[in-house]
Amino acid sequence: MTIQDDRLFLITGATGTTGAETVRLLLERGHRVRALVHREDDRSRVLAAAGAEIVVGDLLDFHDVSAAMRGVSGAYFCYPIHAGLLDATVVFAQAATEAGVTSVVNMSQISARREAASNAARQHWLAERLLDRTPPLTTHLRPTLFAEWISWWWGRQDNEGMLRLPLGSGRHAPVAGVDQAHVIAAVLENPAPHDRQAYPLHGPVEMDHHEIAEAVSRALGIPVTYEPTEVEEFAEGLASRGKSAHLIQHLSSIAIDYRNGIFQGTNNFIEVIGNRTPLTVEEFVTGRKDAFAQSGSHFVPAKRS
Fold first, then answer.
1. Are 224 and 213 in contact (CB under 8 A)?
2. Rounded-to-integer distance, Cα 171 and Cα 205, Å
3. What pLDDT digit, counting tens, does each position of 181-204 carry?
4. The pLDDT value given to residue 29
5. Across residues 147-167, what is the average pLDDT?
6. Can you tell me the distance from the alpha carbon of 148 to that of 288, in angstroms, rounded to the nearest whole number?
7. CA separation for the pair 227, 219 (Å, rounded)
8. C-alpha to C-alpha distance for 169 and 166, rounded to whole angstroms
């Protein structure tokens, strides 16, 4: 059902995994949407063609964010795994407060906690605490590993696939970005019941990576295996691919968290809040087979002997 009202929603990270889907959903429901993007490209042009107002800016630039906040009723804050999260949160919080924004949805992560070994995860916890002290109605989302993670870290050679990750026999229920977007949109539309809540978000089925590989294999019709690696080898591989020290420290730390059960669990928040049945791994892969036609952007191959 399409809703027509005059509210304007700001979506940051608007060309990303959750941002783009949230823009699409809000537009389909008849809302005005302002999409904050880092640069104009094919992805932002798709959003513009769908009806979004495109604003180019930097989440670390107070003037950019303040300008983007003008006239906004609700805002979605999503910062990548880059250095600068706390600075960006301060900028976002002050700009939202000055603009009289009514509500904020904050993308955090399931490993966010005071004692987190990951610098990024601990900063997410601090960012939550800061946002809780601001006037807008505030909701934090703490997803487990995205279903998209599978395609990002996927390796393919000929008609065989592989997942090489330092996650041992840990388990989680992969959650797709589109499913999270339904929760984001629902909270932006009706924020009051969710004020100062932190929602872990999970997919429908908890699995280890051997089971994930089997599900991908069924969807693609090719052999797929999971090869557990050590954290040190994984970190070295990321460094060899030019990944940042910030990202490597985060991923190495959450690999230990994952093995220790921090990412496990299931719940019904996507159904109850987002009014959507979340995708299984097989459904996710079946709908995105093109993403599995070659190795993912983050795949770390085995070291040559």
1. yes
2. 10
3. 999 999 999 999 999 999 999 999
4. 97
5. 95
6. 10
7. 19
8. 9
Does the CA dihedral 249-255-261-262 come out positive or negative?
Answer: positive
**Count of Cβ atoms closer than 10 Å to residue 5 Cβ:** 11
CB 52 within 8 A of CB 27: yes
Separation of alpha carbons 147 and 280, rounded Å: 9
Rounded CA-CA distance 52/70 in Å is 15
What share of the chain in percent tops pLDDT 90? 94
- Cα–Cα distances (Å) from 132 to 12, 20, 80, 89, 196, in that order, read 19, 25, 20, 11, 6
Under the banding of pLDDT at 50, 70 and 90, the label for residue 1 is very low
Stretch 258-283: mean pLDDT = 98
Partnered with residue 200 across adjacent β-strands are 142
How does 60-84 read in b/e, with b if 16+ C-beta sit within 10 Å?
bebebbbebbeebbbbbbbbebebe
130-159 mean pLDDT: 96
Q: 85-99 vs 119-132: helix axis angle to the nearest 10?
A: 20
Residues whose CB falls within 8 Å of the CB of residue 9, separated by 6 or more in sequence, listed in order: 26, 31, 32, 33, 34, 72, 73, 74, 75, 76, 188
Give mean pLDDT, residues 95-120. 98
Q: What is the residue-averaged pLDDT of the chain?
A: 96
CA dihedral 74, 80, 83, 85 (to 10 degrees): 20
- Nearest CA to 298 among 147, 149, 121? 149
Q: In the prediction, which pLDDT does 4 show?
A: 61
